[in-house]
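Example 3.
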Amino acid sequence: NAGVMQNPRHLVRRRGQEARLRCSPMKGHSHVYWYRQLPEEGLKFMVYLQKENIIDESGMPKERFSAEFPKEGPSILRIQQVVRGDSAAYFCASSPPTGQGFGEQFFGPGTRLTVL
Amino acid sequence: DQQVKQNSPSLSVQEGRISILNCDYTNSMFDYFLWYKKYPAEGPTFLISISSIKDKNEDGRFTVFLNKSAKHLSLHIVPSQPGDSAVYFCAARTNFGNEKLTFGTGTRLTIIP
């Protein structure tokens, strides 16, 4: 029973390039969340998605960041024109459909983005 | 605005003793609380949770206590083991459904053999 999968685990980009981070939720989970952890800080919520829908994007920066969770395939967090301040660990979490369990979120291993 | 606070960045405890990690929150709408454990270069691992209708939840060596009037919760680990050395995050949510988690800044626990 595979857990939440994220790839790549490490990503290096130069300023101005695009970063694409992928997340495959646990089997049977239909809710995906993205969080960002800056050095020496806690995790900060970015966006919450269900299949083909963005439910809550209140934590997403207004520009350059976007997320999707298509009907088929993994969820994608996309960062355009990266800047040094985007360097962080990006974690994806998933949870089962509403009504199953208590909504605990299970996290992937993270993608560590370094912007040169 | 830090709605979930872990005021102790680090804690050292002798092996076999009790570890107590504390967490305070300010948002009275939070009604579900979770503790996660995190090793370096890994994702957080869910440990234990508690809803606001309870004041205690126990799972093996881990017990979480909730004091709603004080907006305070604590995680007790007894007995502490070397493998418990990690960063512990407190998180909170506003309802039983699927909602974003608000995390504290973490407490680094070191168990001394």
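The radius of gyration of chain A is 14 Å. Residues 40 and 92 of chain A are 19 Å apart (CA to CA).
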